[in-house]
Specification:
This protein has 17 helices and 13 strands.
Length: about 525
């Protein structure tokens, strides 16, 4: 039986509701209240989610977003710190943005998963509307007839291809210098390289020139710039992401993947990039091996109960390794605090096999000739031989190209066949050790030392072979920073890497996400501050 007070309250409530004194806002009214409470949009360190929220709150338009990123590129790429990260800006970017604003309005926000998200592509990804040069002056006017498979998927999801980035010429090396764009600089220390070969993408995304970036990875070319620029980089399982329409180095070693500021954004881009492509038949192995969404599966508590192997022969022990080792020790302690079990081990087979698993030198000529043949009759360069004979590459890259074209027998060479077998031996050794120790993933620094200064022609002591020599996936994420110096006031970024079994990207991303959400390592480089 209701009390008199409750009974009177119910009667009054009913009367007021009938008279219209009490009103409950409709769905649209809630949106208006949210808009009033919405925080101003902040461009620097923006994510896919923060941009989508600003669109929904009507505090941001696509046109304004694109203008803001173009302003940062103008301010910092060829002047100011002069990072030289960008080779080509999409001349239609603003027109596309205006159309997307209309599309968003007309569809009432029902748009693609990457609607108006600006992307910077490494300039070896084919684009039908911009040159794809590989950083080479002879290729500066080469405009393919169609997009790379992954680029087409990004556009279908609503992304804006904002620009193409400078890179190590033809992705041959790790310091990111090219005959077309010059030397890319690291925004955290302008006396150092940004890693490579996808260093232009790395420097650009770190400096907030766009939201998402792409790289290719024959050795460690996605992960090296991620490590050197406090970013997330994903080298996927061989067969997960199509490489069709990306200027190649190797049939066996090449992969393509995301370079972003957050794990969530890397997962969102990977969601779009994956898929079977008949033009890259190896992707048939990935069918049925992808989750509904990599991003949706991220779990901030995934380190709890995880068994993480620390492979000690991927760590240095000399004084020059001290800065990186210090960062990695803190990464390990943070993972322990999150509930992970750490297991230390050594894999002697890696030391024996890692120098003899690379196959790119024997595959380069065939891979490049295949690429040139698909460019069409209007391409400025029609064969690998023509490219090498043009002698247009920067000096060290020219030597590499000449050594590649001089390889006899190529895919029939006995050394090539031996190395292919060695890759299987390394895969088995890594898999066996993970099974023996019941490991979920293996943890190590992507590079044993800090990223190389400008002027060096090689990027020393990188650990990318554990992934590129096996085909297993790896995720690089910000581990920490070195001790600050005059040229590196925040310190130099140090990237940690997790490697797992085939198609374990959901787990690797979630483990990296769990660390990221706890440690919150990333810092904005001081050389590219907020524009007034």
């Amino acid at each position: 039986m209701k009390s008199p007070v409750k009974k009177i309250t119910l009667i009054l409530f009913t009367v007021f509701l009938v008279l219209g004194v009490l009103q409950f806002p409709a769905y649209g009214k809630f949106g208006e209240n949210d808009k009033q409470k919405a925080k101003p949009f902040v461009l620097e360190e923006a994510t896919v989610e923060s941009i989508q929220a600003a669109f929904a709150n009507k505090t941001l338009t696509c046109t304004t977003l694109v203008k803001s990123y173009l302003a940062r590129i103008e301010a910092y790429d060829k002047q100011g710190p002069a990072l030289r990260a960008i080779l080509t800006i999409n001349p239609d970017a603003l027109k596309i943005a205006e159309k997307m604003d209309e599309q968003y309005k007309d569809s009432k926000g029902r748009v693609g998963s990457l609607h108006c998200i600006p992307v910077i592509l490494k300039d070896n990804f084919n684009t039908y509307d911009m040159p794809t040069s590989g950083g080479n002056v002879a290729m500066k006017d080469s405009v393919p007839t169609s997009d790379a498979f992954t680029v087409n998927k990004m556009r279908d999801a609503g992304a804006i291809i904002l620009a193409k980035s400078n890179m190590q010429e033809f992705a041959r090396g790790g310091v990111s210098i090219s005959s077309l764009g010059g030397q890319v600089l690291n925004p955290y220390d302008l006396t150092r390289t940004p890693g490579g070969s996808s260093g232009g993408t790395g420097a650009a995304i770190a400096s907030n020139f766009a939201v998402l970036g792409t790289g290719s990875d024959t050795g460690q070319s996605i992960r090296s710039p991620a490590s050197a620029n406090s970013l997330v980089g994903v080298r996927p399982t061989r067969g997960l992401v199509s490489r069709a329409g990306v200027m190649p180095n190797s049939f066996t070693q090449d992969e393509v993947g995301p370079i972003t500021r957050t794990v969530n954004d890397a997962a969102k881009l990977l969601d779009v990039m994956v898929g079977y492509d008949p033009k890259d038949p190896i992707t048939a192995f990935g069918v049925g091996r992808t989750p509904v969404s990599y991003a949706a599966g991220l779990n901030a508590d995934s380190l709890k109960g995880a068994r993480i192997g620390v492979m000690t022969n991927l760590y240095g022990d000399a004084e020059r390794h001290a800065e990186v080792n210090k960062v990695m020790e803190q990464v390990i302690e943070t993972m322990k605090d999150k509930g992970a079990t750490i297991i230390y081990f050594t894999l002697p087979e890696y030391d024996k096999l890692s120098p003899v698993v690379a196959t790119s030198n024997w595959e380069a000529r065939s891979a490049m000739d295949k690429y040139f043949a698909e460019l069409g009759s209007n391409a400025p360069v029609k064969s690998f031989r023509q490219l090498v004979d043009s002698k247009t590459a920067s000096p060290d890259i020219q030597k590499t190209l000449e050594s590649e074209i001089a390889v006899e027998d190529g895919l029939n060479n006995q050394t090539y066949k031996d190395r292919t077998l060695n890759r299987d031996k390394l895969r088995l050794a890594v898999s066996s050790k993970m099974a023996e120790l019941q490991l979920d993933a293996i943890l190590y620094p992507l590079q044993k030392v800090l990223v190389a200064p400008t002027g060096q022609t090689d990027q020393p002591e990188r650990n990318g072979t554990l992934s590129n020599g096996t085909g297993f996936p790896a995720v690089t994420f910000p581990g920490g920073f070195s001790t600050p110096t005059k040229t590196a006031p925040l310190g130099i970024p140090v990237g940690a890497e997790l490697l797992g079994r085939d198609y374990s990207e959901p787990l690797l991303l979630s483990l990296a996400y769990s660390f990221e959400q706890t440690a919150k390592i990333r810092k904005v480089p001081l050389s590219t501050p907020v524009l007034k």
